[in-house]
Amino acid sequence: MPIDAHQRVLSLGGTAPEEAHGRHRRTRRWARTLLALTLAVALIGGALLAAVNFIGLDTPVVKQKCTALVGSTLHTLTPDQASNAALIAAVATRRGMPTRAGAIGIATSMQESKLTNIDYGDNAGPDSRGLFQQRPSMGWGTEAQVSDPLYASDRFFEELSTFDYKSMSLTDAAQKVQRSGFPLAYAAHEEEAMAFASALTGASPSTLNCTLRPAQGESSLKTVATDLADATGKKAQILKGNRVRIPVRGKQGWAIAQWAVANAEKHHTESVSYAGLVWDRPGGRWAPQTTDDGYVLITLAGAKG
Length: 305
Prior knowledge:
Blueprint: H1 5-13, H2 17-55, E1 65-70, E2 73-77, H3 79-94, H4 99-113, H5 143-146, H6 149-160, H7 170-178, H8 190-200, E3 208-211, E4 219-220, H9 221-232, E5 237-239, E6 243-247, H10 250-262, H11 264-267, E7 269-274, E8 277-280, E9 286-288, E10 295-300, E11 303-304
Parallel strand pairs: 4-11
Antiparallel strand pairs: 1-2, 1-3, 5-6, 6-10, 7-8, 7-10, 8-9
Helix pairs in contact: 3-4, 3-6, 3-10, 4-7, 4-8
């Protein structure tokens, strides 16, 4: 059908009524969607703000860790690993063995169990258990014994003391005790093990620190005193005001003070002081402060007898 000039002009420059109506509908739908999204974001933001104010989510999240500093190198363990390392070093010291022995023990446990008291073995030793993966079938003790960190550590150093480990490399000494299928693996942990052993035997004062969250749960002064006596052979005096005091001097004092810091998460410890320095839980590091001469003082959070 012929199209006159007026219709051609309309077809070129105008918009059909149906098309214009559809465009308006789409615009209104986008506006409603945008409004709904804005309201949703506002509601979610308000809910999150209420949650923050109610449960304290605005408090910075603390990554718990324990560190040992040697020169400019900082080595890191979890609080549970540090507690086990402290036990191993304490047992070596109690037996009259040097820092080197503590490092061999810590490095061995790092390789065998990642310094964790595990209750399973592997294909090579399915009955292996504990910090050192000792096997009851190989004469290390019963399953219950090798699963006890104190017994396992003592048993390891009993074996280590039967030969001249001082003249051997760390990995060779560890291998002579463990008889592992991977005799060179212990060497990979030597630097880190030496850092923690040096602090935990008192050879490096105030080099072990732990960054911890506020203490939760009930503390026990008697538990601290018992753990200390079992690990180090030292007796603690239980005082009023959630405190335990240990008479010490010199290197031994730093061994016990840093043992206490390494066990701060386990024992819900608030502070440890010795020789003019104090480690406290909020600060997470050693700092100058007046202390009682000749004593390590451990203060617990909300302790019972």
